[in-house]
C-alpha cells in the first residue's frame, strides 16, 4: 500500500469521523438557529457545530470558507476537533488557500492535547515531510501515541514502521502485535498483512490455518474504518 494512498485514506476517514456527529441527521431551521445563536455568543461547541454544518451542507448550503471561519473561532478557544478539521482544510486548500504552516500548527496543538486522529495525521506529515522537515523518528513517536490512543490507522502505520525498521529498530514481534490489534478492530490492510505473517511465521508462529482465517476476514474488513474512538 503506497504512502500516498495511505495518507489520502486516513485524511478522508478522519474527516468523515469528525463530521459525522453533526452530519448524520439533517438539522432543521429551528435547531440551526439555536446553534447560530449559541455560536455567536462564543460557545465553542456550537461554533464547531456550525463549522461542520457548513462543511457538510447540513441545513445550509455547503460553504467551506464559512466552515473555516467557524472552525477558527472554535479552535481559538481550544476545541480540539475544530483545530483538527481546520488543519485539514488548510492542508488541502479547501475554503481558502493552502497554508501548510497553519495546518502544522493546528495539527500539533490538537495532537499535543491527546487527540488521536491529529497525532496520526501529524505523524504522516513528519513521515512524508509534508509542511515540516521529514523525520521518521518523530513520525514513529506520534504513530505510537496515536496507536495507544485508539487510532486503528495509526496501529497499522506503527506496525509497518516496526516491520520495516523505519524510524525505529525492526521488531517483527511488536509489529505483529499491532497488526493483530488493528485486524481485530476490522482493518482490511492489517488482516491482509497478518495473513502473510502467519504464512511466513514472521513475528508469529507459522500457522496456515490462521493465515487462511485472516485472509478470509480481510475480504469483508474495511480498508478505512472510523479510526478513532474519542467521542
Indicate the mean pLDDT: 89
Distance between the termini: 29 Å
Count of helices? 12
Strand runs, count: 0
Gross geometry: elongated
Gyration radius from CA atoms, angstroms: 19 Å
Low-confidence segments: 1-17, 225-231
Largest sheet geometry? none
Task: Indicate the multimeric state.
Answer: single chain
Kindly estimate the percentage of residues that lie in beta strands according to DSSP: under 5%
Structural class: mainly alpha
- H/E series, N to C? HHHHHHHHHHHH
Protein model, in words:
The chain is an all-alpha fold and 231 residues long. Helix content is 70%, strand content 0%. The protein has helices at residues 3-23, 29-40, 44-56, 64-76, 80-92, 100-112, 116-128, 136-148, 152-164, 172-184, 188-200, 208-218. The longest helix has 21 residues, at 3-23. It is elongated, with a radius of gyration of 19 Å.
Amino acid at each position: 500500500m503506497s504512502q500516498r494512498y495511505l495518507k489520502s485514506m486516513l485524511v478522508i476517514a478522519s474527516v468523515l469521523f469528525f463530521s459525522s456527529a453533526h452530519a448524520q441527521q439533517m438539522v432543521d431551521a429551528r435547531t440551526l438557529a439555536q446553534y447560530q445563536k449559541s455560536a455567536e455568543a462564543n460557545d465553542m461547541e456550537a461554533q464547531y457545530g456550525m463549522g461542520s454544518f457548513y462543511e457538510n451542507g447540513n441545513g445550509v448550503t455547503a460553504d467551506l470558507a464559512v466552515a473555516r471561519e467557524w472552525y477558527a473561532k472554535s479552535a481559538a478557544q481550544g476545541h480540539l476537533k475544530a483545530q483538527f478539521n481546520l488543519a485539514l482544510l488548510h492542508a488541502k486548500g479547501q475554503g481558502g488557500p493552502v497554508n501548510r504552516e497553519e495546518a502544522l500548527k493546528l495539527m500539533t496543538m490538537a495532537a499535543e492535547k491527546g487527540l488521536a486522529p491529529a497525532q496520526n495525521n501529524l505523524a504522516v506529515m513528519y513521515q512524508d515531510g509534508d509542511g515540516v522537515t521529514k523525520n521518521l523518528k518523530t513520525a514513529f513517536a506520534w504513530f505510537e501515541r496515536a496507536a495507544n490512543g485508539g487510532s486503528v490507522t495509526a496501529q497499522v502505520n506503527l506496525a509497518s514502521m516496526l516491520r520495516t525498521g523505519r524510524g525505529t529498530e525492526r521488531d517483527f514481534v511488536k509489529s505483529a502485535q499491532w497488526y493483530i490489534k488493528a485486524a481485530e478492530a476490522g482493518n482490511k490492510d492489517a488482516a491482509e498483512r497478518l495473513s502473510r505473517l502467519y504464512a511466513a511465521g514472521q513475528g508469529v508462529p507459522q500457522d496456515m490455518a490462521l493465515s487462511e482465517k485472516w485472509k478470509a476476514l480481510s475480504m469483508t474488513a474495511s480498508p478505512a474504518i472510523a479510526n478513532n474512538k474519542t467521542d
